[in-house]
Structures are given as C-alpha cells and as structure tokens.
Amino acid sequence: MSLKFGSQPVLVVSSAEFAKEISKTHDITFANRSVLISLKKIMYDFKGLLGTPYGVQWRKLRSIFVHELLSSARVKSYNAIMEEEMNLLVGKIKQDCLSSRPVNLTDAFTLLSNDLICRAAFRKKYSETRHGKQFLEGMKKAAGLVFNLTLGEFIPCLGWINWLTGFNAAIDMYVEKVDEILEAVIEEHLTNKGADESKDNFVDILLGIHQGNTPGISIDRTTVKAVISDVLGAGTKTSSTSLEWVMTELIRHPTVMKKLQDEIREIMEGKQHITSHDLQKMQYLKAVIKETFRFHPPVAMYPRAAREYVNVMGYDISPKTEVLINVWAIGRDPSLWQEPEIFMPERFLNSSVDFRGFDFQLIPFGAGRRICPGIEFAAMSLEHTLANLMYKFDWALPDGANGEDLDVTEKHGTTISRKNPLVVFPTKSYF
C-alpha cells in the first residue's frame, strides 16, 4: 500500500512475500531506518545501533553489541543471573499468594526485564536507584511521544505547530532528563574504574573503545550514551510487553494454561529450579511463546527506508521512501494461518516455523541485517519467566472474573502493550 504522509512517501508492506523481498532479496537497499524528527532527537541523532544508517559505523556498532553482550556464549553466561532474578520474582509472588494479595504483573515484568538487562550489560540493577526509576518513567512518556505523529513531522512548513502545541518542548524535556541519567551512569563507571580489575561490563567496554583502547574503531561520548539508551529502552519494553500478552492469553484460555502447566510439571518431576536443559524439553512452552509472537508482536511495524531506487515485484520505489513492514497484519493473514484470530499454540507443535528471521510469516523481531540483535536474550528470558510462573503458581482474575472478561484493549506506542495493567491473583503456590 503506497501512501503519502504529507510530503513523505510511505510504503506499507503487509504480506510475507513482500516482506521477504524487502528484508532478504533487497535487504541492503532497505537497510536504513526511518528518520522521524522526534525519534532522531530521542535517539541521540541516530548515533546508536538502532538508528545509525547502514554502513561501516553501523557494522562496527553491531559487532560490539553481538560480541560483547548478545552472542550465544554471552547469553548462556547469563543463566546464573536469570535464575537469581527468577528466585526473587517467585519469592515476591509467593508472599503475595500467602497474603491473598493481587499482583500487578505489568509492573513486575517491567522491573524484571530492566533488572535482567541491567545486570547482563552493566553488572548492577538501576531500577531501585533514583536514576533508574526516572529512566523507566521517562521511557513510558517517550513511547507515546515517538508515535504521536504531528503535522510538522511530514509537512515541514507547518513545523511551527509543534512548538505551539508543546510537542517539541515535551521531546526536549525528555531528552534532557535522559541525558542527565546516562551522564550519571557514565560518570559512575569512570569514577569506579580500576576499583575492580575483574569487571567486564558493557559500559566499561564502550568507554574503553571511546578512550581509544580498541584499535580500528572509535566512538564519541554521545555514541556511548546512545548505545546505552538502545540497550535499556529497546530491551526492557519489548520483553515486558511479550510477557504481559502471554500471561493475558493464558488467563483468557485456561485450557491452554492447564496443558502448559501439565507439560512443565511432568518434565520437572518436583524439582525446584528450572534449568536451560529442562526448558529444551518443553515443546508446548515454545509453541505458546511463538503463538504469542504471532498474535501479539511486541512491535507492530518495523520501519525501513530505501537507500536508492529499486523495483520490487514490479513496483517502483524511490529513494528515501519510508517502508513499514506490518508484522501484525502478516501474523493474522488468513492465507498463511488457519483461523488466525484464534489463539492456538498447537499450530506450532508440528511446524518448523520459527521467529528468528528466516520464516517471513513470523518475524516479531524483524529480519535481515536490521533484525533485533537481542532475539536470543529475549527468548531465554521469556522461557525462564513463563516456565517458573506456570510451574510454581495457579492464577485467577480478581473478583472471580472469567478469562473472557479480561480487558485486552491495546495501548499504542513504540510497542503495542496493554492499555490497562494486568492485575491477577496467584491462587496457589507449589513451593
């Protein structure tokens, strides 16, 4: 579907076949991101991995991300962190269960996702600090600002309206606050440098590159802040949103929940701690997660931008055309999925379709060069969290409500999350 947002040509891609052309066949041609003015301000002039135009600098930044934070070996090394955070989460929920208190899973998942990312990348939590709380609060505001499409964004001569409405002031206020937070994080690491020679965390690695300790690559201080912002912002919201939706759908479909609990409890045989080895045996768990990604992709549309003229499947696409790959629509395409509006994990039990960017009917993390580098970390955290919550607790809605009564209204922003928090009761604890 070809559109015009003001003076900006936009192409909306809603088929798996065309998505494959964009993300694989012509991947290099569409290897840039969109350039929304508000997004450019929030993302440090596109100096981080998520916004940097395709080229030498982008390849260097991605290499840093993958090798120093998100490689398979690195992700496996986070197992101890994962188990510790799961124990903390389970312990808190158990106390709520014993006291018959409801649990706000929306808040719990946000904190969990942020803590996991912070411990993996920075070797410490920030959610309990003043700066960490401010960052999480600011992130919520930014999600709405970025997708609050304004006239000034697409009709430059009307840009003054953004000043009049206060939109630009809100963006500037957010950027100033986040910059203050990230500066504090950097100063903390610079001050503590040398205090612990065994430290090996992402911020120190970035600062080392900034200070010229790595031959062949250099980044300025702004790029360091942009990359840290990418790690904290992108990882926290997408992971917590996916956890929100999978628990929502399980509560709405008690038969699916029971089947998942039976699988997990049979495999565990009464053992207390779920390991990565145990997770590999849980095929229905993996099917539930895939179905959640199909039904509720954390990001509804992945933006690309054409770097040059290209003809795709007979259509002429001009340079700088914005391309929105409509992952949500592809996941509900009746030509690809049987009964697409029904949450049915069984469709994946005897299917080789996966979400790692090779099967274009299921691309919740994108595909091609711009695929999310945190895909393995996200999958691991989802599996660990869901398995623990299903294994160790039974769940119900407040006031005896039925699953079909659960509100599933969406809140649109950088991710498609629930409009209202997911509040539930853990009705029975098994440990």
Automatic annotation (TrEMBL):
It is a single-pass membrane protein. It comes from the Eukaryota. Keywords: Heme, Iron, Metal-binding, Monooxygenase, Oxidoreductase. It is found in: Membrane. Belongs to the cytochrome P450 family. This is Uncharacterized protein.
